[in-house]
């Protein structure tokens, strides 16, 4: 019989101590050969309390907004460099095509010949007409200049845009409107044809019809300056030709009639010569063609072309096959 003052024996429950609800046994059998041990008491976890709806909504909202911002940030980091990247390939291809035309303009000897031979009776009419046509074909304003100015490589790169503006200012000075240039060249062509015609005229041997035909080149030109000069020239030249024929066809070789014929011839020739010296239009001054700046034009374009090429090499579009790639290097000619 146990004494109440004695502690309970090991392995036996405490008297009058009811077990705790849902409490695992405080004692359990020990493994074989081991003394029995007492398991520690574990406080049960309290049940989860429901989250405050306002707090829950705030968290969800923050996650959605923050996640959206994160996604947008990632997308911007990927897309923006692509959108902001300048494609220089259109500028390079346009400049390369324009280079051919600028080279032709700079070495356009036909236009120089037009000015050089406009007063030459030894350059045939056929050859001179060819010079005029070649010059018209070369010196007609090309759309490639404006097309180059509209490319992203020019519009969005400040350094290239500055050089393009410098080139275009020279270009615009040389290239007047096509209509103005063409009309000037037409005047040069008419004047040269007149010069050749006059070079083949002689007071005594040429007929009035031949003299009139030469004058009509100017009179019917549609240019008031040439028309006015042609009419005056025709009057003076016919008078001199008539006086010369009368002198050459004279039947007397002395006396007043002889002297009168000689004086009339000399006076008519002098009047014709005096009229030409005072009224002959200076075509080169009146209708200046302004081809002297082609060297400067070439220089300004070469600077622009080199700048576009070198920039394109650094920002090359490898799918374009515009330039040569070798050992990781890009060369655009």
Can you describe this structure?
The chain is mainly alpha-helical and 333 residues long. Among the domains are: 57-86; 88-176 and 290-333, no CATH class. The chain is built from 13 helices and four strands. The protein has a two-stranded antiparallel sheet. A two-stranded antiparallel sheet has the order 3-4. α3 crosses α4 (125-138). The N and C termini lie far apart (116 Å).
- Individual helix count: 13
Shape, please?
rod-shaped
Number of strands: 4
- Lateral strand order in the biggest sheet: 1-2
Gap between N and C termini? 116 Å
Beta content comes to under 5%
Mean pLDDT score: 83
Order of helices and strands: EEHHHHHHHHHHHHHEE
Low-confidence stretches: 75-83
Class inferred from helices and paired strands = mainly alpha
Helix proportion: 55-70%
The Cα radius of gyration reads 52 Å
What is the makeup of the main sheet?
A: 2 strands, antiparallel
Care to give the gist of this entry?
The protein has 333 residues and is mainly alpha-helical.
Task: Describe the protein's topology.
Elements: E1 27-28, E2 37-38, H1 53-84, H2 89-106, H3 109-116, H4 125-138, H5 144-149, H6 152-155, H7 158-174, H8 178-199, H9 208-219, H10 224-248, H11 255-279, H12 283-286, H13 294-314, E3 324-326, E4 329-331
Antiparallel strand pairs: 1-2, 3-4
Question: Key features?
Answer:
333 residues; mainly alpha; two-stranded antiparallel ribbon; two-stranded antiparallel sheet; 13 helices; 4 strands; 62% helix
């Amino acid at each position: 019989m146990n004494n109440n003052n004695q502690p309970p024996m090991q392995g036996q429950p405490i008297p009058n101590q009811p077990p705790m609800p849902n409490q695992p046994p405080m004692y359990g059998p020990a493994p074989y050969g081991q003394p029995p041990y007492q398991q520690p008491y574990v406080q049960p976890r309290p049940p989860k309390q429901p989250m405050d709806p306002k707090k829950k909504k705030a968290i969800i909202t923050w996650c959605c907004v923050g996640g959206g911002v994160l996604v947008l940030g990632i997308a911007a980091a990927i897309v923006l460099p692509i959108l902001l990247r300048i494609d220089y390939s259109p500028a390079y291809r346009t400049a390369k095509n324009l280079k051919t035309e600028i080279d032709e303009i700079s070495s356009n000897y036909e236009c120089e010949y037009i000015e050089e031979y406009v007063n030459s009776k030894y350059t045939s009419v056929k050859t001179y007409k060819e010079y005029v046509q070649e010059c018209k074909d070369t010196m007609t304003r090309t759309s490639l200049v404006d097309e180059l100015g509209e490319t992203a490589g020019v519009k969005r790169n400040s350094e290239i845009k500055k050089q393009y503006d410098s080139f275009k200012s020279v270009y615009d000075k040389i290239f007047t409107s096509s209509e103005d240039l063409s009309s000037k060249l037409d005047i040069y062509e008419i004047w040269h044809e007149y010069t050749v015609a006059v070079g083949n005229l002689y007071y005594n041997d040429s007929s009035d019809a031949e003299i009139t035909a030469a004058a009509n080149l100017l009179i019917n030109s549609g240019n008031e300056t040439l028309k006015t000069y042609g009419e005056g020239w025709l009057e003076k030249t016919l008078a001199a030709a008539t006086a010369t024929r009368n002198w050459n066809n004279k039947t007397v070789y002395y006396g007043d009639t002889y002297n009168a014929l000689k004086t009339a011839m000399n006076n008519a020739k002098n009047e014709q010569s005096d009229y030409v010296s005072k009224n002959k239009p200076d075509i080169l001054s009146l209708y200046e063609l302004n081809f002297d700046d082609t060297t400067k034009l070439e220089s300004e374009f070469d600077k622009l072309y080199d700048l576009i090429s070198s920039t394109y090499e650094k920002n090359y579009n490898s799918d374009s096959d515009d330039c040569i790639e070798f050992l990781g290097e890009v060369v655009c000619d």
